[in-house]
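Exercise 7. Predict the joint structure of the components listed below.
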Amino acid sequence: MTKTTREHILETGLDAISVQGVSRISLGPLAEKAGMSKSGLFAHFRSKEAVQLALLERADALAHERIVEPAMALPPGLPRLEGLVMRWLGWTSRTTLPGGCPVAAALFELDDVEGEIRDAVAKLEADWRDLLSRTVREAVDLGDLSADLDVAQFVWELGAIYLGHHVSFRFTKDPMADARAGLALEALFQRNAP
Amino acid sequence: MTKTTREHILETGLDAISVQGVSRISLGPLAEKAGMSKSGLFAHFRSKEAVQLALLERADALAHERIVEPAMALPPGLPRLEGLVMRWLGWTSRTTLPGGCPVAAALFELDDVEGEIRDAVAKLEADWRDLLSRTVREAVDLGDLSADLDVAQFVWELGAIYLGHHVSFRFTKDPMADARAGLALEALFQRNAP
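Solution:
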């Protein structure tokens, strides 16, 4: 077995935050699921916050591997932007994660609290918006989208469609979730066509 | 003091679920905030689930009082629909609630669990979609929106804009949150103009 204990804890924990959310994770049950004692877990992470931060980092790394890297391999402009958005929507269901996107959930869990976990989530959200903004801007510069496009507004509406899809796909389990998001995206892209 | 103890527990609890979410509420801290013992609280509610269900019901009653009743007093068609949507977006901030919408948060908290709390949230979400659908249909029937409008799609997109606004207003605290939602709504209504 080459997998380190730390790796094993993080894999188990990522499954847990995908289901329960990053705020509701408890170290006792996590240690138990990982097959160790709570003090064994504390040998690898100094605090609950350290575990939560490492799990958010791991979720981000997984999103980059599954969404960003394959999208960046596509030609810049509309193909890359559409590739990014289509891989983003419902992305956790195309991994081995048992639940939803822990960052999306944290945007509702942590809106009214302060602290380093909220700050880490805010950074992930801002970085994601930057990535989307750069990719939209590239499509504008290449003439694939209107030169008048408001990048921040376009990205805001992409985010709203992502959240709407998350709820209809994961919570209400609407068989039309993908189709509804597709129609909303089509309207957004058409409105901003060159 | 005419307020019953049950009322007092529910008021305190509604503040708590607006901040923490309905899943993360604990009866110990709730009893303490309400100025009573945990066993005192159990004299009014037989279980944690009973408290959670009563709190969701109370959140729904508050939403009806603050959003639905004033909107229904407006003329049917576009005025009523727009009145409903504008009162819905960011509604908790126009009450004394200290946090966000507990139902919106629960759509992310409870997507991967089963049980009566999830069922209650699913019913509130479905009832809300029904109310929006009826109000959109009324605007179509009165000729205020296109006869070709897909009601389920229109309501899906309203829901996405609501969630996008919740995140940008409450989590990222974007001063442009209302303006961004307004532009997205304007585009949706224009696309479906008669």
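Discussion. Chain B has a mean pLDDT of 95.
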